[in-house]
Amino acid sequence: MGSLYSQYLNSSKVLEHYSYTKETLETQETPSRQVASTFIIILCCAIVVENLLVLIAVARNSKFHSAMYLFLGNLAASDLLAGVAFIANTLLSGPFTLGLTPVQWFAREGSAFITLSASVFSLLAIAIERHVAIAKVKLYGSDKSCRMLLLIGASWLISLVLGGLPILGWNCLGHLEACSTVLPLYAKQYVLCVVTIFSVILLAIVVLYVHIYCVVRSSHADVASSQTLALLKTVTIVLGVFIICWLPAFSILLLDYACPVRSCPVLYKAHYFFAFATLNSLLNPVIYTWRSRDLRREVLRPLQCWRQAAAGVQGRRGGTPGHRLLPLRSSSSLERGTHMPTSPTFLEGNTVV
Q1: Which residues of 84-104 are buried (b: 16+ CB within 10 A; e: fewer)?
Q2: What are the structural domains of the chain?
Q3: Structure pTM?
Q4: Of the N and C termini of the chain, which has fewer Cβ atoms inside 10 Å?
């Protein structure tokens, strides 16, 4: 074991593993790769910004401190960190990869695995919460905050363990024949384990939402209203986007496990599949937040304030009267004119996620 960890700072190990698993080593930045990297970084910046707006909205308004919104905040935090990790991963890829030590390589890939895993576990937690709410199961008692924090903490702990297993020793250093082609320092058995866990999570989410669908369809007419139709539409979008984004990545990892070294050229394009999976972090706020009218209004509030502040500055420069600043009142007027009961029943009914 000591000899294994002594290799973590050996700068030649990454080159050795990439030379074994790759047919050619791309050490130069081609124009197409530069364009792809730029696009991915812009995409990840959008992920960071929109999830940061969701976190601000949930944190600043006590009306959103219920179970559903706290889980949404956890999802936004994991997606935000996934965007940051993927930016770092992109910047340290290409010609920089072969200059990394194994411990740096494990940190680069492990951070992406941890944050993307946390995002997936957050999706599962939200599915559980929706199932609890729709099925009217009494899960949260007086200690509901403790239970929610334990669930959120468990999702992050599992993600840390799952993403940290390779740096703790489950890797293929010293065993080139056991290495993954997509992730040349990861053992194929570890890759299979990750795919299996994610597949089980996907199956669990599908089962939960199918049961939600059955409960809603069997409800009486006073329950099966327009809210029901919106919920069914949201469930369809959630399942469709999750499967579309993650299935290609799962498939390429399964193919990586099954293929002998250098026998499947498509594995050399795996980074495109992982970039596509990251779209899930971009779309999660759209699916879960934009379907809630209250949260959407709160998320857009900072953008409206920035726009009004910019209009005010432009108005002062142009010498126009101060009435250009009047739109600032629209937000507070809307707040005063919108009667928002804070009872759990109203919040549950107003959130169609």
Answers
A1: bbbbebbebbbeebbebbbbb
A2: 10-304 (1.20.1070.10)
A3: 0.78
A4: N
